[in-house]
Amino acid sequence: MGYVQKPDRGRRSGLAGKVSFRKNGGKMIPRRYRQRFNAWEWSVKLLGLSRDPESQDRPGLVMVQIDGFSKSELEKAFERNEMPFLKSLIRKEKYHPHPFYPGLPSTTPAVQGELFYGVKQAVPSFFFFDRESQKVFRMFDGESVRAIERRLAGHGKGLLEGGSSYSNIYNGGAREAHFCAGSLGWDQIWKDVNPFNFILLLLTHFAAFARMTFLCLWETVLALMDFVYGLLKKEDAVVEFKFVFLRVLLCILLRELIVLGAIMDIARGLPVIHLNFLGYDEQAHRRGPGSKTAHWALKGIDKAISRIYFAALHSTRRHYDVWIYSDHGQEATVPYVGHYGKSVDQAVEEVFRDLFVKDGPSSMAAASPKKTRQDSVQLQRARYLGKWVEEMWSMDQEQRSAAGREVVTAAMGPLGGVYVFRPLSAGEKVAFARELVTSAKIPLVLMPEGDHKVRAWNEKGEFVLPEQSREVIDPGHPFFDDVVADLVALCHHPNAGTFTISGWNINGKNFSFPFENGAHAGPGKAETDAFALLPFHAIAPGRPRPYLKTTDLRAAALNLLQDPKNGKSFFGHSHSSKKTKEGVTAVRIMTYNVHSCVGIDGRHSPKRIARVIGRYQPDIVALQELDIGRKRTGEADQPHLIAKELEMLYHFHPAIEVAEERYGNAVLSRYPVELVRAMKLPKLESRLKLEPRGAVWVSVKIGDIHLQIINAHLSFYGPECRHQAKALIGPEWLAHPRCTEPVILCGDFNSLPNTNPWRTINGKLRDVQRSLDEHRPLATWFGRYPIGRIDHVFVSPGIKVLVIDVPKTQLNKLASDHLPLIVDLEVS
Fold this sequence. Notes:
Number of domains: 3
Structural class: alpha+beta
Distance between the termini: 23 Å
CATH architecture of the largest domain: 4-Layer Sandwich
Number of helices: 25
Shape: elongated
CATH superfamily of the largest domain: Endonuclease/exonuclease/phosphatase
Strand content: 15-25%
CATH topology of the largest domain: Deoxyribonuclease I, Chain A
Low-confidence stretches: 1-30, 362-366, 565-574
Number of strands: 33
């Protein structure tokens, strides 16, 4: 529904001036003090960082990328209990682990290019010859990355506009970027910090810095043990020794700095924060994706994500969602250079010389095996921490030129390009490709042809794609059609090589051209087997395929971040009632005591309540304890704000009115709704100053069905509650001639099962939690640790109960002192 039906503001209870509200506005005071003395708020002040002035009550997104982590390895980690927090998100927080196909090449620069800017196949591989600049680009070099990102930015604004970017290839349009390939280190944060503020910052976060120091020392011990293991396996001693320090820098120091920065940005209220954890990917490249060393890094990543998640949950500036995904997986590989004793550059050069340059010197100095080992991506990403790492390790920063060369091989990982800068006839190209397979032992060679075709060579022979793609790609590949289409498009990329070479072997070992035991970029099952662990409401149902693509992830993120002022709800899709058979309709009902939209944390937020409701897409919502115009809740019109956010119709009835302040119940509906009755429930004479209670009766039209909904909030005082329960089954309500089936009575009854009020109503209708076979009744109160079942849904005999849920997510336990009770029903 695109509009909201306002309640009758002329309705009065006749109690004005006689009943006073409880003075519980003090609930807001603890929150103010918590915010004032919050360590992260002080960090923002000490560092002189800006806050987002328009962040209050707006949606926000924290995207956590676990680099190189496949869905299959995630499942292994769950089995071994290496990532208990991520596992709990599925079990307790209703997150869903979506299969995610990242596209080809399955590398971070390509995936982030599409995610941040919507440009598919932004690069042909991690290492390639750029025809526009006539230079060889490596996507960890700052100059190369900035050049590509300038081109991507020409397609439109980046996804991270106004936010922050940590440890990514691209900045993504972020206002602030740290530890990224295009903007190294964290220098801009510290340059204006005076020494006194720095000391205060250390004292404020002494525990965090002590933790970081301990973890670095402990990881150093483990790295030294791994160094000895590498020597026993006859690995290169110099490189293994470098990895001792790089493991500490990338797996611990960089990770902890990213967490600190992300939590500060949450405290500042930045709209979107994207961070990338490299620890697993680094170790998987080095020891293999299934190695104990790589999986050890997952435990620290899991704890880091939990810290970010709870910081986002308790944010006072935005309503953050936290999404976790991987950009690709990794294949277990054999290093080409180690297996054949020469680099792929040398092998290609030899074949080229034998075929086309039989006399004369070589036109290209091929990389030595030692140089190939130094070019390993793992050794290069340490520079993300800042220029001091480049200087300490004397890393190669040269952007290579192809001037004067006849052939250039650019291959970092299992996918690369061979660029030939002399004319070759069609026959010479075919001969060269065959020799690359037979003599250079390259598993797969591809060459683009007209009409979106590709000619491919492997040990089985010569084939044309896409027609003969089953001879090149495993027919059992879960993303077979997409992989074939992307592989063909990749070979036609403007910066692809004259020949594309791949270590992918359909029938044998997979190779990677540098020294590494795990790799990605190609079409393998594991390297394209990514995942997206998202809240259940993040992706709309009805997708054309059972897995996500990068475009789906980008579209969902943009939908969440869109400006609420454009009139659209940021809750995404809605649950819609549907006919299950002729004359029968499935309806989702929610009853929820919202505690005046004041959460357990003392924060008043109608939008947070709307966020909770919107996640479950109910058709009809019965809300209790709503305020209108009350000073204690900022004089907000809570039912109107919630209904507007959810794009639902509503009727509100005040049980209490004092001057312009009101307090009562409401029914929200996605379908045409007619108010039948709204009045106070009878009171008992008592010395106790008991709060007046009320009920709202509406008729909801769903197709040809007129569903009678009564939302009631009963007294907590036993005798009065019993009296009100009897009234509800009397002639003014359930026994009224107009109250015909189907009928639903729901709300906060302040009565446990088997008590007198409950038995009174259950004798007339049925408690849904007692009506579903093999269902264990679920408590709804108290929110954080629910122990009592005082919120109920009662239905008439002709209504069938399908599903019952009381979702106990962290957000739900924070938003109110009650949990929502959600019931799927079949009405006729």
